[in-house]
Amino acid sequence: MKSCLFIVPIVGSALVCLSGQQWETSQRVDTDRANRFHRDVSLIETMVEGGLCLAKEETPLLRAECCTALAQQLATAVRHAAKNHDHARVEELGQHLRTVLDQGVAVNLSETRKHVPANSSVEKKIEEVRRSAASLVEPLEEELEQASAPQEHEEFQNTLQALRQGRAELERLRAPTPP
Q1: Which DSSP symbol is given to 4?
Q2: Total domain count for the chain?
């Protein structure tokens, strides 16, 4: 029995060390969360403002403009994440950007086009919004292709694919050229 007593201080010391590590790990996780929230606060504000813009706009063309503004902010966030080599964030934000391009800009422009005669002033506005949204994607694609060997990073490849699909959807909506 006396030979087992030496284990008590060792086990006690180990428990103290482990609980200290757990507290440090918990503190690190909380700090990481706070840092991510601080990093994301302006993007969160933009998304809320964009949601409010979408809710108040009554026409699909105006909603497409709201979505283009959201896409601009997401493209900036993707660019910033790529610059910081935050590959998982690049992928996540890239997917959100594609969703805004596809389900926000493209869907609303397509809906507007259904009710507009060709060569009208509204048709020209549709094309202007489409071009504006598409112009966000091409430079971002080029930047991601050049950033730190993207072929090595699946996240970059997934993001590039999503951006290309979003741009293709916008190109599909290009106004037909008159004969």
Answers
A1: G
A2: 1
Asked if residue 97 belongs to a domain, the reply is: yes
CA distances 21 to 26, 29, 45, 75, Å, are 8, 12, 35, 39
Q: Name the residue with higher pLDDT: 9 or 104.
A: 104
**Runs of H (alpha helix) within the chain:** 7-56, 60-83, 87-99, 107-114, 121-146, 154-172
- Phi/psi for 149 (5° steps) reads 45, 70
Can you tell me the distance from the alpha carbon of 144 to that of 10, in angstroms, rounded to the nearest whole number?
Answer: 53
Residue 107 lies in a domain: yes
Whether this model's pTM surpasses 0.90: no
Among 97, 106, 175, 100, smallest CA distance to 141 is for 97
14-63 tens-digit pLDDT: 444 444 545 555 667 677 777 777 778 888 888 889 888 889 999 999 99
Residue 65 domain-assigned (yes or no): yes
Decide if 38 is inside a domain: no
- Range(s) of the domain holding residue 70: 57-172
